[in-house]
What we know:
single chain, alpha+beta, Beta-Lactamase, Helix Hairpins, Heat Shock Protein 90, five-stranded mixed sheet, 12 strands, elongated, binds adenosine-5'-diphosphate
Amino acid sequence: MPEETAEHLKEVTEQLYKRNVDLAVRNKILSLLRELYQISILTLEPKDLATKVAEKVQVALDFELFGVFLYNENEMSLTPLGFSVSSKFNDSQKIQGCSLERLTIPNTSVIPTLAEVIKNKKVREISHIKDVWGTLMPTCDFTALANEANIKSTLVLPLVVRDQAIGLLMLCLNREYTELSQFERESIFNFVNIIAVALDKAILYKEIQIANARLKELDKQKSEFVSIASHQLRSPLTAIKGYSSMILEGSFGEINDKARGAIDRIFQSSQRLVLIIEDFLNLSRIEQGRMQYEWATIELRKLVEGVIAEMEGPLKDAQLSIDFSHDNQEYNITADEGKVRQVVTNIIDNAIKYTKHGGITLKIKKDSDTRKILLEITDTGIGIPPDVTPKLFQKFSRAEDAGKANIMGTGLGLYVAKQIMLAHRGNIWVDSEGAGKGSTFYLEFMAE
Ligand code: ADP
């Protein structure tokens, strides 16, 4: 073979070899990026995430050290979150008696290079690792450590999200930074971005979890407070209601009309307060899972007739008509009689409260196929705007009209009613053609 051809062949082979090496590096980095992406999806705990990332990158790219630090803006501190070092680095660390993994950097202002990376959000090459840890660990021989661990260059990269540095990465390489290929350098910047976003997501997730736990605790305390306060209010109120009722009945002698009017108002107001307190007690029972049910077979038609009879007075006062149509069938259900009575009373009471003219009609029917019993309660009252209906069964929810019309209420009745209906494997919902067009409430039960 002529010498020239041999020379050319050698050159081509060398080039091929270089390209092969380059391809292998690209392959390795691409699969590393894929793995980092997987870790970022599956790992939600910040420390866990940083540790997994550090181990993966340090081993895959043969770094001597890979550290993920979290930056605390208030304290200006850097806490190591994930750390991975080569065995060479680890051995030397032990010999030199310096353990860097757990060393928090209390204030970046004492280490100008790190402070600059955080402030400018730009990568920096550090001439010696002593510049980072030297002041914090004066006993450690960092020159020996760098020699034994074969550290040729050190890079500090900021982890930036929403234009804020949330931490930084520290990389110790066994090559000069300038020896890295363009592709390797670009890849480092790529995985810095992936790590920053993943870490940010993990931190936010943790913050949400903490806030959620705190909210749950507050909610529990609120329920307990409502329960205690309601119980405490109940006894004095019973006395007010009892004595005012006795005065009205004449148990303490004759009273004049002026006094009767005033005491009647005391009696009515205390009765209203009793109902409000009962709503609050029901709310805390439901929220603390303490609502108790006594199951028995009851006949729904009779129960509804009973409630209508009890409401005669308020219906008369409001000058509203009432009509209950049924087919004289028996509508037996397994239920807690007191609670179902409470729901039906509440719906009729609301119908009276929110209706100025007209009346209330009730219908009951059974579907023999599904064995569902449906009780419909329709009024000719203020109606409900369509966007409000889905929210009415949430606690403390009241339509704007209800407040504007100056009608008293807590917005708890329908919430409690829904919980009671669900406990009966039933349901409750409302239909209204809109403001001013009346409403129909539906109560659905399972027949026995
Ligand atoms: P409240 O104590 O406010 O009456 P409820 O939970 O019983 O609480 O009812 C929630 C809201 O539903 C009421 O504030 C009112 O806006 C609306 N609502 C309930 N029943 C009717 C009705 N029959 N007609 C119109 N609006 C009603």
